[in-house]
């Protein structure tokens, strides 16, 4: 990785700016990410209401945050694969399919946690 020359508070501020750019790009270009952002906006108050203790609340909110994290990583993989070329290639397809599988597992994880916490 190239050294940016930024240190201390400047490095932290720059990192925050890059992160915010990533959130904005994902929200603008990825329908699934937009849906999951709205899901977490709904899920946080519900988790705070239905969770009986801090652990349950953290698990419920954390499962949706994990889904957002996986979706961001999947979108990043897709962007890199698409950047390298639009012609079909089995490794490109495999990378995209694996990213999609990771999102599916994160969704399943969130569903199971919410079912267990609410039952």
TrEMBL record:
Transmembrane segments: 58-77, 98-117
Keyword Kinase assigned: yes
EC annotation from Swiss-Prot or TrEMBL: 2.7.1.107
Keywords on record: ATP-binding, Cell inner membrane, Cell membrane, Kinase, Lipid biosynthesis, Lipid metabolism, Magnesium, Membrane, Metal-binding, Nucleotide-binding, Phospholipid biosynthesis, Phospholipid metabolism, Transferase, Transmembrane, Transmembrane helix
Membrane-topology descriptor: Multi-pass membrane protein
UniProt-annotated location(s): Cell inner membrane
InterPro entries, per the entry: DAGK (IPR000829), DAGK_prok (IPR033718), DAGK_sf (IPR036945)
Keyword Transcription regulation attached: no
Class of the enzyme per the UniProt entry, highest EC level: transferase
Names of required cofactors: Mg(2+)
Signal peptide: none
Catalytic activity of the protein: a 1,2-diacyl-sn-glycerol + ATP = a 1,2-diacyl-sn-glycero-3-phosphate + ADP + H(+)
Domain of life: Bacteria
Annotated GO MF terms: kinase activity
UniProt record similarity statement: Belongs to the bacterial diacylglycerol kinase family.
Function summary: Catalyzes the ATP-dependent phosphorylation of sn-l,2-diacylglycerol (DAG) to phosphatidic acid. Involved in the recycling of diacylglycerol produced as a by-product during membrane-derived oligosaccharide (MDO) biosynthesis.
UniProt name for this protein: Diacylglycerol kinase
Organism: Candidatus Thiothrix anitrata
């Amino acid at each position: 990785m190239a050294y940016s020359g930024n240190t201390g508070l400047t490095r932290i501020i720059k990192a925050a700016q890059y992160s915010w750019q990533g959130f904005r790009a994902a929200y603008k270009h990825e329908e699934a990410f937009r849906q999951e952002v709205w899901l977490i906006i709904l899920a946080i108050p519900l988790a705070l209401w239905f969770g009986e203790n801090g652990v349950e609340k953290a698990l419920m909110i954390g499962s949706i945050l994990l889904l957002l994290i996986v979706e961001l990583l999947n979108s990043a993989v897709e962007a890199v694969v698409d950047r390298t070329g639009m012609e079909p290639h089995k490794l490109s397809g495999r990378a995209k399919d694996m990213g999609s599988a990771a999102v599916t597992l994160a969704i399943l994880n969130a569903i199971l946690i919410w079912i267990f916490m609410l039952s």
